[in-house]
Amino acid sequence: MLEACCRSPVTLQRDLKRARIVLLAADGRSTRSIAKEVGVQPRIVSLWRHRYADLGLEGLQDKPRPGKQPIYTKTTDKRILKLLDKPPPHGFARWTGPLLAEALDDVDVQYVWRFLRSHKIDLAARKSWCESNDPNFTAKAADVVGLYVAPPAKAIVLCVDEKPSIQALERAQGYLKLPNGRALTGQSHDYKRHGTTTLFAALEVATGKIIATHSKRRRRVEFLDFMNSLTAAFPNRQLHVILDNLNTHKKNEDWLKAHPNVQFHFTPTSASWLNQVEVWFSILQGQSLSGASFTSLKQLQEHIDAYVSAYNDKAEPFVWTKKKVRQRRFKGRRITQL
Question: What range(s) does the Tc1-like transposase DDE domain occupy (predicted)?
Answer without folding.
Answer: 157-301
